[in-house]
Amino acid sequence: MNHSLRVNHKKLASGSSPDRDQPFHDISSWRTRFRRRGLPLLSVDTQKRELLGNFKNSGAKRDRSPVPVRAHDFRCDSIGVAIAFGIHDLLANRGSVLSGVSRDTPAFAAPAIAGCWKRDGSLRDGRARQPLILAGTGGGNGCRCRAWKTALQAPLRHAFDRTVTVAHDPTGASQWNPIEHRLFSEISKNWAAEPLESYQKILNFLRATPTQTGLAVTASFERTHYQTGAGPDPQLLRLLRLTTHQTLPAWNYTIAPNL
Length: 259
Hints:
This protein is α/β, with parallel strands linked by helices. It has helices at residues 22-37, 106-124, 146-153, 156-159, 178-190, 199-207, 234-238, and strands spanning 41-46, 50-52, 80-89, 94-100, 132-135, 164-168, 216-222, 241-244, 252-256. Strands 1, 2, 3, 4, 5, 6, 7, 8 and 9 form a nine-stranded mixed sheet that branches.
């Protein structure tokens, strides 16, 4: 009667928008336009939080025997948490990861982009300083987060001196953000089955991420503790120079530096 043991299939998306396909067409068009002009394409997102300690890490590695780890992943048994915000420069095939000890907040994400560009991008080409940022719709870089927009504008004058175009993926579609399969997937394969026992071990794995396409990854560490739930500064909100696009203005906008 066609009955057998089966597993659940994750195929039903919640909160799907009727405009789900349009953002992908817009992002594809913008990527082609920015690439032809030689302007930077930055894909950004936050990797999942990792518990530090002798805990199981997903994946498998070649070894003579399995590594014994704790039977349960209790927060009280860890020495801390690590959260990584990644930036992938699509044209230069360079990745930059800022590893923090706190939370995924706009105050953590936005300065990471400016710091990455000042450290790597400006040295490569000081003229191409008007980037397209591809981001997800949630977390510290969410499209509805006003603090993300004000936090992104603050370092623009020092890092770019020009406008920044931001395009968000549709809700529930962040897995198609280029950083997921070009940087984060390579990082996960590099430290597969390795217990992440210290921040230094995480940084070592990040910096030694190998790929066949020549991806170069830099990593830095941030000890600042950020509080969640903090709203945007009212003064910065009044000074926000944000221009929404005609197509899907909630997901696509341009931010100019506050002069």
